Amino acid sequence: MIHFPKLNINTETLSILLVGVGGQGTILASNVLAELGLNLGYDVKKAEVHGMSQRGGSVISHLRWGETVYSPIIAQGQADIMIAFEKLEALRFIDQIRPGGFVVINDQEIVPVTVSTSDVVYPDDQTIREKIAEYTPNQYWVKGVAAAEALGNAKAANVVLLGAMSAMMGMDPEPWLDVISSRVPAKYLDLNQQAFYKGREAVES
Amino acid sequence: MVLNEEYKPMKRLLSGNEAVARGAWEAGCSVASGYPGTPSTEILENFARYPHVYAEWAPNEKVGLDSAIGAAYAGKRSISTMKHVGLNVAADSLFYVAETGIEAGLVIVSADDPSMHSSQNEQDNRQYAKFARIPCFDPADSQEAKDFTIAAFDLSERFDTPVLLRLTTRVCHTSGPVEVFEQQQQLPEPGKYPRNIKKYVVIPANARQLHPVVEARVQDLAKYAETSPLNRVEWRDKKLGIITGGIAYQYAREVFPDASVLKLGMVYPIPEKLIKDFAAQMDAVIVLEELDPFIEDQVRAMGVTLFEPTTKPEFPLSKSVFPIFGELNPLIVRNAAKAAGLLNGEAEELPNALQVELPPRPPSLCPGCPHRSSFYVLNKLKIPVNGDIGCYTLGVAPPLNSIHTCGCMGASIGVAHGAAIAGDKERHVAVIGDSTFFHSGIQGLINVAYNRSNTITIIMDNRVTGMTGHQQNPGTGLTLQNRETIEVDIEAMVRACGITKVLTVEAYDVDVIEKTLKQWMKEDEPAVLITKEECALLPSARKQYLPLEVTDQCNGCTVCFRIGCPAILKSEELDPKYNRSLAEIDAALCTGCEICAQVCPRDAILFRDQVRAKQVN
Ligand SMILES: Cc1ncc(C[n+]2csc(CCOP(=O)(O)OP(=O)(O)O)c2C)c(N)n1
After folding, report:
1. Cβ contacts (< 8 Å) between A113 and chain B: which residues?
2. Ligand 1 center to residue B580 CA distance, Å?
3. 3-class DSSP state of A151
4. Quick one: pLDDT band at residue B2, thresholds 50, 70, 90?
5. pLDDT (tens digit, 9 = 90+) per residue, B199-241?
6. What global pTM score does this model have?
7. Cα–Cα distance between A69 and A71 in angstroms, integer?
8. Residues A199, A144: contact at Cβ < 8 Å?
9. Assigned fold of A2-204
10. How far apart are alpha carbons B64 and B80 in whole angstroms?
11. Inter-chain Cβ pairs, chain A and chain B, closer than 8 A
């Protein structure tokens, strides 16, 4: 059984969804989560789609931990946790979350090219918040890019999100930092650690 | 397998593709040839990095398979990888090697793409195994992907047959823990190249002798399947028995945790006795598989009675319980089982669909993409365009809207030529990328030249195989294993095909492309325009990025929006006179390709030189 008392999660298979826009660093984040699961002693599956969607399209990764994980895909409406690297994508995929699931949202806006070539508008924050609230009361917004920029590198936003997630799940930072350290180049280690703690603060405060 | 005692397996997180590469290496495979294609590409990219192996990108799948066959004839374990549609290209070779067999193990990997995440169809390549009479392995996860690859080499040699290792997107691109060994199997050095004419020269007289050998081989393989460790029965409750293979096994376990399962690792040929014995012990039996009723039809043909749902299948070829379309997942499986009366309860309601229209985010040409200018011009000139497969297929999307057909790799030039020989009133343009031209475009161009149609072809040479993630190709000067090599000169190649009207231009130069096409449309002869500029995502291109700026000359005329560049945004600011959104450039995305600056009728976007001059001041 997988048990996260802070989130009231008690399940055989934990299902985590990562959504964002091609090129945003969702892959590093899902790799970290997969390895973390393995280090914690779980069976792990991580599914992503490569190819076509990388060209600036919506991207989605499925991640599952459990005693034995069978399906690599999380069925619609079954995700326990969703990390959204971009606001619009959070809303686009919100129907993947189970009622009462947890959503971490990076407060970043990447306007799709369809906005400048059609009349469809990018939804405002209030609409996004309200629509997400129809699915779950548990949404955490994190200023990932701002936090990472304050540290001098916007690219570390994905690690800010991981930090936020670790705090949200009520987990100690060490196992996360172990994995992150093994995956980032040495010269960025310090930056990534700070980014991770920024993310934790965002949720803890 | 000969293993040194010291080498204990250790667990690593590997994708299915990484696991196949690992398995091939552990099995002592030392030659690989294939062509990139999602979801197969990472197999060779990973294999190429192992010590003591030779790995290459061939210009297309047929050449790749022939090369692997040649290496297997020469006594080296070899692998050839491709996406499912690649096996169509290589099919002729598949069929002869199925007849001849090999000297050393040959594994052919077909990565299928149910749900067409990155493909033009979702053909089920298990059918090829049956068609060509060769064994087919269908792993369900990364561990099996590795184990089955090793087993495939052994089986290939034992039965003197190529083995089809059939993967699907979810297996290729799902990572899971895999036990790896740090040592390769030590294989004997190959002997002298065979002079076995009866086996390897398939002239009719020999081929007639070989066909019965092939049929007998299938029979032997079916016998082997009865006891093969690749197939296993998991006994649980006997009310429901599930026969399954590949990724569908995972959904069987998740949705029917109590059911007994007959898991087929080898899905062709299948073990008749094992299946009948299993079925005989169950109250009801179903087959759970993705796409075609491949196992289902074979099981029925054996005379096994399968569970009959009350509902009739949707289409004549449908499976009895599960959909024939798309990839399965636990929800689809559960709902289909409920609809069929296998599980209690109504089909689960999906959570409410969002009641708000969101701007879609389809894949699109990247900022700075050198393909963009040609599509802008083609759209402006309203020319019918026969397209091909690659990043440039995205020219179909609004606002460029400039591709009117696209079927498979290499089809563009032939289809455009077809319009010409049919006497179509409009002049057609074919567009094709560099890698696709080398893959199968050249023959179409030879046909245009030879049979003298007035087809115009644009070869979009972005110096790399872009769509599948930047693989080297015969035009790039490097091989898969990063050795320096020749660069095939596309212009010289085009001339050698017999085309005399050829021009190579800078791909970002909108004006030259427009003038050239307009001029050529007036002349009645075949012509080829090569638009050359490296892909904007290549590291060398990234070094040149210089974001452009919009000046206060902008009046929101929207012309720059029509190039469909993700870096050009609608500003919140409105033009006071026309009350329409001004253009704004996202400096984080803009590469400074200047296509927008060229099309702007009011010179309201600064060119690179102007931006630099401004920065200096
Ligand atoms: C028969 C076949 N093999 C492989 C693929 C996968 N594939 C799609 S596009 C592409 C490469 C296109 O490269 P290029 O022609 O250079 O165009 P670019 O994407 O760089 O614009 C490949 C290999 C395919 N669709 N069909």
Report:
1. 364, 564-566
2. 40
3. coil
4. very low
5. 999 999 999 999 999 999 999 999 999 999 999 999 999 999 9
6. 0.96
7. 6
8. yes
9. Pyruvate-ferredoxin Oxidoreductase; domain 3 (3.40.920)
10. 6
11. 168
**Helices and strands, number each (H, E), in chain B:** 23, 20
Helices (H), B312-402: 330-339, 372-381
Domain boundaries, chain A: 2-204
| B234-282 tens-digit pLDDT | 999 999 999 999 999 999 999 999 999 999 999 999 999 999 999 999 9
Dump pLDDT digits (tens) for B166-210.
Answer: 999 999 999 999 999 988 999 999 999 999 999 999 999 999 999
The C-alpha of A40 sits at a distance from chain B's nearest C-alpha, in angstroms, of 13
How far, in Å, CA of A89 to CA of B361, rounded? 9
Q: Which of B403, B502, B406, B386 is CA-nearest to residue B449?
A: B502
**Tell me, what amino acid is at B60?**
N
Question: ipTM of this predicted complex?
Answer: 0.94
- The ligand 1 site (C-beta within 6 Å) comprises B 35-37, 83, 85-86, 89, 389-392, 409, 433-436, 462, 464-468
Query: Domain of B300?
Result: 231-345
Distance of CA B103 to the CA centre of its chain: 29
Q: Which of B611, B616, B561, B569 is closest to B589 using CA atoms? A: B569
- Min Cα–Cα distance to chain A from B115, Å: 11
Q: How many domains does chain B have?
A: 4
Which residue is associated with the tokens 């050839």? B80
Whether omega for the bond prior to residue B188 falls within 30 degrees of 0, making it cis, is: no
CATH number for the domain including B250? Answer: 3.40.50.920
Residue B127, token pair as written in the block: 């059918």
CA B193 distance to own-chain centroid: 34
* Encoded amino acid at B299, one letter: V
Place of tokens 């509902």: B311
Check if the beta carbon of residue B476 is closer than 8 Å to that of residue B469: no
**Which one, of B559, B572, B359, B376, lies nearest residue A114 by Cα?**
B359
Query: Which residue, among B270, B367, B308, has the nearest Cα to B589 in the 3D structure?
Result: B367
**DSSP letter (8 states) at residue B439:** I
Residue B195 burial (CB < 10 Å; 0-12/13-18/19+)? exposed
Residue B5 within any structural domain of the chain: no
Chain B CA closest to residue A32: B13
Same domain (yes/no): B472, B487: yes
Distance (Å, rounded) from C-alpha B581 to C-alpha B602?
15
B158-173: average pLDDT:
98
Q: How far does residue B306's CA lie from ligand 1's centre (Å)?
A: 41
Judged by a CB distance cut-off of 8 A, whether residue A137 touches chain B is no
Interior/surface letters B213-224, b for 16+ CB within 10 angstroms, e for the rest: ebeebbeebbeb
Q: Are residues B219 and B109 in the same domain?
A: yes
Please give the full DSSP string across A59-126, using - where no structure is assigned. EEEEEEEESS---SSPPTT-EEEEEESSHHHHHHTGGGEEEEEEEEEE------HHHHTSSPPPPPHH
Residues B70 and B133 in one domain: yes
